[in-house]
Amino acid sequence: MLGALGSLIVKRRRLVMAFWMLFVIAAVVIGGSVTSRLVTDPGGIRGSESEAVTNALEDMGMADPSLVAAVVGLDVEDPATAETVTAATAAVQDIDGVDAAVDRYSVPLPQLTANDGQATLIAITINSDLTEAQTSAVIDEVEETLREIDAPRVIVGGAAMVQIEAVEQNESDLQRAELISMPLVLLVLFLIFGGLLAASLPLLVTVVAVPGTLLILRIAAEFTELSVFALNAATMLGLGLSVDYALLVVSRFRSERRDGFDVHESVVRTVASAGRTVLFSGLTVAVSLLGFLLFDNMIFTSIGIGGMGVVLLAMAAAITLVPAVLAALGHRISVPEPDTERAGLFGTVAHFVQRRAVPVAVAVTVVLVAMAAPFLGARLQIPGAEGLPASLETRELFDLRQDRFADGGADPVVVVAQGSVAALADLRMQVEQVPGVAFAGERPGSPDGTVVLDVIVDGESQGERAETVVGDLRSIETQADIQVGGAAAMLVDGKDQLFGRLPLALAVMALATLVLLFLLTGSVLIPIKAMVMNALSLTATFGVLVWGFQNGALAGVLDFETVGYLSLWAPFLIFFLAFGLSMDYEVFLLSRVAEIHDELVAEGHPHANDEAVRRGLTSTGRIITSAAALIAIVFLSFATASTVEIKALGVGLALAVVLDATVVRMLLVPATMKLLGEWNWWAPAPLRRFHQRFGLSESGAALSKRSAGEDRSDGGNPGGVEPDALPRVELVGAGR
User: Fold this and answer.
1) Low-confidence ranges of the chain (pLDDT < 50)
2) Long-range contacts of 507-515 (CB under 8 A, 24+ apart)
3) pLDDT over 70 for what percent of the chain?
C-alpha cells in the first residue's frame, strides 16, 4: 500500500505540494484565531469538593478576589490616603462586571494592611459568568482605574492576572525557543546531510504540522473547552517530531540513492520503507498521548488533542509532502559515499557490553535508581505567581504580600458550612482545634444558616501540613453540612483525580504498546522488558527534576529561583510525552534486531541473538542518535523559558530522550538481551502462530534484493544494511 502511495506521490508531486500549501494557508487563516477561543484559566478540579466550594461562594456573592491591588508608599492612617483609596474602590465597584471591591476602610480586615502601615490592599471580585473576552475587558478597565491612584506605586495582581501573565509569558517563551532551536537544528541537519536543501526539508514539516494543529484546535474548541497550554505541548512536539520524522525519510532517500537507484525509484522505496517506520512510530506516540484523554482534566484533554493532532500531521507530511519535494528536487541533494567502516562506534559498544553484560546491567541499573532516588521526596503543587519571573507585576505583588503583610499572602483553606446556630458554633470551635490551624476567621456577608471560614494554616498554603489540615477538616464529625475548598483542597482533589485515573491511562497505554512491540518482535518478554526499562529511565528523569528544580541544584545554571516544588502536572506530562518518544526509538531498534534474528536463525547461526543485537545497534545507531540529538536541542531550547514550569518541562523531556537514546539503548538493551539469550524471543505457541500470520517485520535486505534483482549485502555488512539505514516495517504473511 505504501509502495503504491509512493508511486502516486511521484506522479502527482506538484498536486501533493499544492495541497499542502493550500492546507497551510487555510490553517493560518482559520486556525490563527484559535488563541481567542482557548481558555486561559482551567478552573477547578471537575466534580470535586473544592470546585463545589468555589461555586457556592460565587452563588453567595462571596467569591475569592479575582484581582488584588497594592497601594504602596502611603501612610494608611492618613485621612488623605483613606480618601484616595476609598474613591478608587468606589470607582472600581461601579465598573460593569465587578461584583465587589473592598478595602481596609470599608472592611477592616487585618490582612488588608501592611505590617509597617505603608501599604494597603484593594480586593476586587469579577463576575464569574462573564466570557473570557468580557473578563479581559473588565480587567483592563479596572487596571486603568487603579493606575489613576495618586500613590508612589500601585501594583495590580491576583489570580486572574497570574493566568493572563503566565499565558503571555509562555507565548514569549515559545517564540524565544523557536528562534533558538531552529537555527541550531538547521545547522546540525546541514552537518548531517552536507547540503542546505536536504537540511531544510525537516523544517518544512514543522511549517505544516504546527499551523495545522492550530486548525485542529480551532475546530475542537467549537465542541469543548480547551486550555491555552495545548499550544505549548503542540509546539514542543511539533518542532521535535517534525524534524525527527523528516530526518528518517531524507536519510532513507539518500541511502537509496547511494545504492544506485534514480530519484523517482528512491522516493518510492523510501515511502515503502521509511514511510512505514514513520507511520508506526507516529501511531505509537499518538497512542501514548491518548492517555491524556482519560483524565477528566481540561489541561490534559487539551494537550492530548493538540499533541495527537501535531503528531499525526507531522507523520502525514513526512510520508507525503517530503517525498513529493524529493521527487521534484531530489536530484539536487548530494549522494553520500559508500561507508567503509561497517561496525563503527555502535558495533564496538555493543561488542563491549555483550562481553561484560552482568556488570554493565548492574552498573546502569544502579545509576538509574540512584538518579531516581530524589523523586521519593517530590513535592507536587499547583503553580502560582511564585513561579513567574520577578520582573512581572503579579510576582512583585506576591513577594510584597509575603514580606510585608500579616498573612504572607497565604491562600486560606475555605470551609463552607450550613446548619443550626449551635452546630455552626460547635464547628468553629472544632476547626480552631485542628492541628496546624493558625487561626480561622469568619468571612463577612454570609447568609443566615451559613458560615464561611477562612482557615490560615501554619506553613505554606499548599504544603504537607495544609494537605493534612484539609483531610482533618473534611473528617470532622459535626451536625453541620460542611465542604472544604481553597488552594490546598484543590491540590488534594487534583492529586486524587490524577492518581485515581492514572491506572486506567497506564493500562491503555501499556496494552497498546505491548501489542505493537509483540507484532514487531514476536516476543512476549521483549515488550515487557522495554516497558520496564522505559519506566526506569523516566523515573530517573523525575529524580533529576526534583534534584535540579525542586531542590534548586540547577538554579544557578538555568537562571531561576527555586520554588521548592514541582508542578502537579509536570510528572504526568513528561511521562506520557516522553514515553511515546522513547518507544519511537525502541521500535526503530527492536524491529531491526528481530528481523536480523529471524534471518540468522533461518541460517542456523549459533549465536543468533547476540549477533542480531550487535548488527541491529550498528544499523540503527547513527540515525537514532541523530534524531535524538535534534529533538533534544528542541526541548532544551525551552530551558531558556522565564517560567520555572516550562524550564522543567523542556529539561525533563530532553533528559528522557537522551537517557533513552544513550544509556538505555546502547548499554541496558544489549546487556539484558545478552543475559536473556534466546529467551528474548519466547512466546506461547498460539501467540507465536498469530505473529507468524499477522506480525510486522522489517524488509531491508529483502526489499533491496527484490527491487534490484541482486544481493546487495557484503561480508562486512551482513544483511546489506547500511550504518545509517532506517528500520523498515511491513506486514508479513504466513509464508514469512
Assistant:
1) 340-342, 698-736
2) 508/290, 508/291, 508/294, 509/287, 509/288, 509/290, 509/291, 509/576, 509/579, 512/287, 512/290, 513/284, 513/287, 513/288, 513/583
3) 92
Q: Contact at 8 Å (CB) between 524 and 680?
A: no
CA distances 422 to 233, 426, 451, Å, are 52, 6, 12
Residue 263 makes CB contacts below 8 A (sequence gap 6+) with 257, 326, 327, 330, 331
Tell whether the torsion through CA atoms of 702, 705, 711 and 714 is positive or negative. negative
Please report, as a single letter, which amino acid is at residue 396: E
What span, in angstroms and rounded, lies between the C-alpha atoms of 568 and 572?
Answer: 8
Cα Rg, the chain, nearest whole Å: 30
What's the pLDDT score for residue 42? 66
The neighbour count for residue 46, using CB atoms within 10 Å, is 13
Per-residue cell: 182 = 531552529
Same fold, 66-157 and 394-492: yes
pLDDT computed for residue 700 by the predictor: 41
Query: Distance between CA atoms of 317 and 319, rounded to whole angstroms?
Result: 6
Q: What b/e string do you get for 158-183 counting C-beta neighbours within 10 Å, with b at 16 or more?
A: bbbbbbbbbbebbeebbeebbebbbe
Q: Torsion angle of alpha carbons 515, 520, 522, 523, nearest 10°?
A: -70
What pLDDT, on a 0 to 100 scale, did the predictor assign at position 681? 84
Q: Which CATH architecture has domain 1-31+166-338?
A: Up-down Bundle (1.20)
> Nine-digit cell at 484?
472544604
Cell numbers at 590, concatenated: 527492536
CA nearest to 154, candidates 74, 94, 95, 65: 74
Give the global pTM.
0.83
Q: What is the pLDDT at residue 145?
A: 93
What CATH architecture applies to the domain 394-492? 2-Layer Sandwich (3.30)
Q: How far apart are CA 106 and CA 138, in angstroms?
A: 22
The CATH number, out of the four listed (1.10.1240.10, 1.10.260.40, 1.10.1040.10, 1.20.1640.10), of the domain defined by the range 343-378+514-673: 1.20.1640.10
Residue that the C-alpha cell 530524589 belongs to: 374
In eight-state DSSP terms, residue 561 is -
In this structure, the number of other CB atoms found within 10 A of the CB of residue 298 comes to 21
The reported pLDDT for the residue numbered 154 is 92
Q: Where are the domains of the chain?
A: 1-31+166-338, 66-157, 343-378+514-673, 394-492
Cβ atoms of 679 and 525 within 8 Å: the answer is: yes
Characterize the bridge pairing of strands 730-731 and 67-72. Answer: unpaired
CA distance 54 to 208: 41
At 41 the pLDDT is 65
* φ/ψ of residue 113, rounded to 5: -120, 135
What angle is formed at CA 566 by the lines to CA 652 and CA 572, rounded to 5 degrees?
60
Q: Is 205 exposed, middle or buried (0-12, 13-18, 19+ CB in 10 A)?
A: buried
Estimate to the nearest angstrom the gap between the alpha carbon of 639 and the chain centroid: 14
Phi, psi (deg, nearest 5) at residue 209: -70, -45
CATH number at 66-157: 3.30.70.100
Residue pair 651/335 in contact (Cβ under 8 Å)? The answer is no
